[in-house]
Amino acid sequence: MSITRRIFAVAAVVGAVAIGAGIAGAQAPSFFRIGTGGTAGTYYPIGGLIANAISGAGDKGVPGLVSTAVASNGSVANINAIQSGSMESGFTQSDVAYWAHSGTGLYEGKGKVEDLRLIATLYPETIHLVARKDAGINSVADLKGKRVSIDEPGSGTIVDARIVLGAYGLTESDIKAEHLKPGPAGDRLRDGGLDAYFFVGGYPTGAISELATSSGISLVPINGPEVEKLLEEYTFFSKDTVPADTYKDVGETNTISVAAQWVTSAKQSDEVIYNITKTLWNDATRAALDAGHAKGKLITLQNATTSLGIPLHPGAEKFYREAGVLK
Hints:
- With 327 residues, the protein is of the alpha/beta class.
- The protein is built from eleven helices and ten strands.
- Strands 1, 2, 3, 4, 5, 6, 7, 8, 9 and 10 form a ten-stranded mixed β-sheet that branches.
- Pfam families: NMT1_3.
């Protein structure tokens, strides 16, 4: 059975259960798909927890709504699916959402996705600048002339890396740029063929933990007046700190992060998005997120309206104003 057929088979079973429980009464349920990421990543299990919560029975979920988490290729694929109408919502990095909505960065020359709207900011995805311990790199400025992987063309990381370099007065031509995914970049760092690489993701990341244990690393801080100016210009970034000993023998490191966000289309009704947002932040969902995944505890109402690179959906905005999160 294909993935698509399996998804709809599961949705049909869940829908039947929902109707049997009296959620939808005589009315057929509405389906609300959440595009996530690969099944081995963080987006997929978090999406499953949220989908289960908003499909919940009684006053724990949204009446008449059945939600499913759908595996995908991540941020760009999810935005494309929302734009085409093949998904009602999806997860994305805040920087990718900003570029899509503004037609810049990864979306330069591809047009704007003007209908993209935010339901909630979920949790931080930290910008790691991982360096070989003996590379003598103590600041971003020290990358000049070094062998640095900034990820592959077409990735979100490469755009973020260029922004960070630019904040410190550097361009790609000032470094010996490599274009490797994080796994191969870590291997090259271990073998002495690379001095540093950029990685965007939640901490601790298994591959970096293994590298720190086997070879030793340093995490390069991304802070100072250069970053203050960067944060003013790019609202999808936030300050972040990697706590001491997150990675073996690495002290507390100040850096910046983008955010994992849940986005939808302006075409979705205000009432549906209001009810979904309200359910996302009820006590039952809170308990499910806390118990269900390590990142779940970082998903908080206080952070829901941070890293606003795109407009909130009016339905979500209504809830956040009622909840006192927005003035």
